Amino acid sequence: MPLLFGTAEFNEKEHLTIGGCDTAVLAEKYGTPLFVYDVAHIRQRARGFKQTFNSLGVKNKVIYAGKAFCCIAMYKLLEEEGLGCDVVSAGEIYTAIKGGMSPDNIEFHGNNKTKEELVYAVEQGVGTIIIDNFYEIDLLSEILKGKDKKQKVMFRITPGVDAQTHDYILTGQVDSKFGFDVNSGKATEALEKILADEHLILQGAHCHIGSQIFSAEGFLAAVEKMMLILNEWKNQFDYTVNILNMGGGFGVKYTESDDPLEPEVFVKAIVNAVKAQCELLDYSFPEIWIEPGRSIIAEAGTTIYTIGSQKVIPDVRHYISVDGGMGDNIRPALYDAKYDGFLANRISTEKPEEVRIVGKYCESGDVLIKEIDLPPVEAGDLFAITSTGAYGYSMANNYNRNVKPAVVFVENGQDKLVIRRETYEDLIALDCE
Ligand SMILES: *Cc1c(COP(=O)(O)O)cnc(C)c1O
Hints:
The protein is of the alpha/beta class. It is 30% helix and 24% strand. It has helices at 23-30, 39-55, 72-81, 90-98, 115-124, 134-147, 186-195, 217-237, 263-281, 294-297, 331-335, 424-428, and strands at residues 9-10, 16-18, 21-22, 34-38, 60-65, 84-87, 106-108, 128-131, 151-158, 180-181, 200-206, 243-245, 287-290, 301-313, 317-322, 341-343, 353-358, 367-374, 382-386, 406-411, 414-419. The strands form 3 sheets. Strands 4, 14, 15, 16, 17, 18, 19, 20 and 21 form a 9-stranded mixed beta sheet that branches. An 8-stranded parallel beta barrel has the order 5-6-7-8-9-11-12-13, surrounded by 5 helices. A 3-stranded antiparallel beta sheet has the order 1-2-3. Helix 6 links the parallel strand 8 and strand 9 (151-158). The longest helix is centred in the middle third of the chain and has 21 residues, at 217-237. Bound molecules: pyridoxal-5'-phosphate. Pyridoxal-5'-phosphate binds next to helix 10. The active site is at 362 (proton donor).
């Protein structure tokens, strides 16, 4: 059985439909590869986080990490759902504002924000800048002084919790290019420096412990560690945070073997842990912010490809090529990410056999799915890869001068083009003679 998410199902023509739209029709209309986003699914995930906080009566901000996927239409959708957004470049700030995102709901991350980007963020009125390092404290302070402005900031700390694995290692995350390290005392040094700066209005502390996290344990360990540090700072400097930002990284389902928790479960676990620690330490309960990226957008996205050539090496391998690959989804090549896929234009009862799905790019590493059981397929068949909504299009590239695919949003039987497919003219648009 194929792994179907959200509104995805097969219609009477045995075509995959998403949001009530026939993907074979969409493929014909927009060309393949094609990213199809199930808007109802995006809304459901966004609400899963937001409404759980609200129902618990906890002041919160759910901030979508735009690096997972962003475009004007996506920011419009976030505005509708009452989410903020996290950006990591001036380009993302520009897009967010063009998409109608209120600057106050934008938070700016990054370990090497340039002077130009910080000036742009301050001028645009970006709500929160998350300071990552000492260089940035000085740079931002100097910019603000020059403009005689104040800026709301948080600072990112690495609490020394690595939630990448189920049995988290308490020192693992220390070796990171991001944030101020707690164990060596750098975080405390940063706090003193920021508090002493009249241009910086410190709102709270941030941490982000990893990605594709499947259990609540890592977050609980991070909450404990964060609250311990915050409490030390309360005692030492009489400083209490208004906001505790626990970052993103909530896991999603890529293949049958992934077993992620629902957004509601993560939110409840975090809130309960913060409450317990606050009671234990007699700390006043802060506003809680989170930054889900993948968990809002990954499962909502499906890529539709057209199958082309096949190569059978007897007793070795059966390769099936599709008309996209590492240009529209570099994750399998980049970090061996696993995906699931299936025939999207018919239901076959023929005997499946193990095949490898590869792209059309000139790299042997251009593999989309290493091993998958598929019935016999032929050129022209449509192949769907599910859960491609995060870090797919946003990492897309023009390798081999292939054009980037189109992106459509589908909802209630309506399709809406939100990013058009590139043209050959686009490919030479930046070339100078
Ligand atoms: C990447 C990132 C996120 C989002 O991570 P997901 O795994 O997509 O949820 C959130 N916060 C920060 C600081 C990040 O770098």
